[in-house]
Structures are given as C-alpha cells and as structure tokens.
Amino acid sequence: MSYSFLRIVREALRGDRGWRPAWRDPAPKPHYDVVVVGGGGHGLATGYYLATEHGLANVAVLEKSWIGSGNAGRNTTIIRSNYLLAGNEPFYEHSMKLWEGLERDLNFNTMVSQRGVLNLFHSDAGRDAAARRGNAMRLHGVDAALLDEAAVRAMLPWLDFDGARFPITGGLLQRRGGTARHDAVVWGYARAADRRGVDIVQNCEVTGIRIAGGRVQGVETTRGFIGAAKVGLACAGNSSRVAALAGLRLPIESHVLQAFVSEAVKPLIDTVLTFGAGHFYISQSDKGGLVFGGDIDGYNSYAQRGNLPIVEDVAEACMALLPLAGRLRVLRSWGGIMDMSMDGSPIIDRTPVAGLYLNAGWCYGGFKATPASGWCFAHTIAHDAPHRLNAAMRLDRFASGALIDERGAGAQPNLH
Fold first, then answer.
1. Which residues, listed in sequence order, are joined to residue 253 by a DSSP beta bridge?
2. Alpha-carbon distance 56 to 326, whole Å?
3. β-strand partners of 333
4. CB-based burial, 260-296: b 16+ in 10 Å, e otherwise
5. Confidence of residue 414 (pLDDT cuts 50, 70, 90)
6. How many CB atoms lie within 10 A of CB 175?
7. What is the per-residue pLDDT for 407?
8. Cα-flanking dihedrals φ and ψ of residue 24, to 5°?
9. 23, 123, 314, 370 — which has fewest CB within 10 A?
10. 87-100: buried (b, 16+ CB within 10 Å) or exposed (e) per residue?
C-alpha cells in the first residue's frame, strides 16, 4: 500500500475504510538467514537495507517491547554531519545524504527539516577550533560556513550578546543539518522493511545466544529458539548486556541522557543551536515546544530516567545562552540509555564469534547516524566485511590503539 495524495483523497471519499496496518505482526519463523536484535531505528534500517541493497528477504528484526520504545523515541531528533576526523566525517556525510532522500525511498513522511545546525563559539580558541572543523568538513565535500558575531546577530538577534557571561563571538554553520521526526523514522523503516518481506517481531526478548564450534546458531527468546545463520546486535544502551550472552565484554559504559521539552511558543528558533561554552543544544519542534538537552548523567545506569543535578546543569546552560527561556515551563522530560564507547565513536564490526556482528557505542550520535548505520551494518553482515565507510569503526581498535577520538577526551565516556 503506497501513500500518495491521490490515495488520501480516495480514502477520504470512501470513509477511510481501505487503510491497512502499516506493517505485519508475524510470529517468528524457526530459522532466518539473518536475525537483527533491536527494533529501534538502527535495527530496522539494517533490516531494510539487507533487503533492498543485498537481496536478503529472510530476515527478522526482534524487539523486546514495541518498536522504537528505546532510544529511538528518546532523543532530540538532530541530524548533522559536522564531524572532524576522517574516521567519522565520511560516514556521517553519507548518513546526511541518505536523510535527504529518505522520504522518497521509504514513501513515508519522516519530517526531515534541513533548518541548519549552528555551533556557537565564545573565544579565540573556540573560533580556531571551529575553523579547523569547518576546513576538515570542506575537505570532505561537506558544507560549512564560519560566521562572525555580526552574522550570528543578524541570524539570531534575540540571543544574549552583550550581557552574557560567555559573549558570543561567532559560530560554525552547517546549513544542511537540521531535525527529523524520530517516531516517523522508525515507522517509515518498519513499514518499508515489512513491504520487502522482513519480519518485525515485537515483544520478543532475546535471553540467550546459542553458539557451537565458535559460530552463532541462533538466539533464545521469550518466544522460543530462533535459528539464524547470522545475528546482528543493534541494542543501543543494552549492547553490553546482550553481548554478554555470547561471552563478550565490550569497551562500553551505559549512561542516562536526559532531554526536555517546554510548553509551546510562537516560532522562535528556526535552526538547531548549540552552546560553545557548555554542553547544551536546543531546537524548536513543529508543535512549538523548545526541545533541548545537555550532558549525560555521570553514573552508569540502565534506567530510562535521570536525576536532578543534570536538570539543574541543563537549565543553567539554557539561561546562560537564552535568558528568555526562564519564563517558560518544562512540560516533560525523558531519558535514553547511551552506550558510551571509550573514544566517543561507534563500533560497526564483526565479533570474535563467527556470524555475530555488533552495532554499538553511539554515544550522542545515534539518531543522526540511523540511515548510514543501517546501511553499513547491512553491508558488514551481508559481506562478512566492513564497508570503507565503517572500516575504522573496528571493535579491536581499543586493543590496537587506532582510536577515533573525536572530542579528544580519551577513555572517559562521561566527557564525550
């Protein structure tokens, strides 16, 4: 069933009696060519690209709850490719290009809004760092514009330029960045994957990974054993727990990341804005609410809730950048589980167990990477080898020292 303007008109005239469920709710088969564990954006995108790019239709995506119940629905929806290092920049730019054609590919409105991402800086050192990042982006063919104070003031005149504790001196702008609707991304990939024969099995928690002779045989689940020639793990904040079922210990810590949304106001912020003197980012949703967040909570946790010190820290950063926000009420908050790698960059690779593959360590960058993550993970699973775009995202880089230390904080996940 394709969505189109004509279809909407037709169903309106028929009393909307012709719509069908967007995807099936199948019972799991005894055996699949590939089982993907995790029904978030990354897992569903992997299933979709396995079918569309590699012709593998006998694929299942398993989700312990409902699809999108984890981090996919618990983020601030920002998409961008303004990275510095060669191990990251081409990958995230590929993701941006996939975002730009995603609605056409999926035949689904994922509400991609390329409103721009502006990273502010507040000192000469911040300007130099932004210039370096912008030059690296341009060398990879990615759009970047370095703005001075006058340009930022013309773009966002309501910011606190004169009386601020950290005066704004400029910003690095990626005009192609922006936001997308997180739920719609999950629904779009689920519907498109289902149309190509991928089974999306909800309420099916993986409780064990069966291995024989060093090769994966399938997964034990709450709905019985499911055999598989290959198994891909895309479990976000639960990656360490699921990988432990196969005897693997990952270089990952799980932390809570909180996000917040205010009451709706008239159009105010027409871009995505980040604070250069603290970790804070904000945008405005189509409903009018300001969506914002900051640092992860500093302790390890698998709980989808945060604590008050981070609420205070985020509020302080918001007031330093945007004093007018002090008059707004926060309507709700939520917490996602971040799988923080030891260098702040992701892992898409084979594991020491034959036929078992890992997609993890996304830190703050999981949502924006959704299309490229699924695309590269599908390639890695189908060919039993990484694509050049994720070749540096190896699991063994933490043993060899070939790190992708994007922020320069080293093996301290709380600083990423």
1. 340
2. 52
3. 260
4. bbbeeeeeebebbbbbbbbbbbbbbbeeebbbbbbbb
5. low
6. 14
7. 79
8. -75, 170
9. 123
10. bbbbbbbbbbebbe
Of 395, 392, 413, nearest in space to 92 by CA: 392
What token pair was written down for 77?
A: 């929806």
Six-digit token string for 112 = 């991609």
Residue type, 341: S
Element (H, E) at 133: helix 124-139
Mean pLDDT of the chain: 95
Look up residue 244 and give its two tokens.
């432990």
Could you give the C-alpha distances from 167 to 121, 122, 171, 287, 325, in angstroms and in order?
9, 6, 12, 30, 18
CA 203 – CA 62 distance, rounded (Å): 8
pTM, two decimals, is 0.96
- Residue 34, token pair as written in the block: 């590939």
Kindly state the tokens that stand for 237.
Answer: 């904040």
Secondary structure class of 42 (helix, strand, coil): helix
Judge whether 242 and 86 are in contact, CB under 8 Å: no
DSSP state of 196: T
**Look-up: residue for tokens 């000192």?**
123
Indicate the SS3 state at residue 324: helix
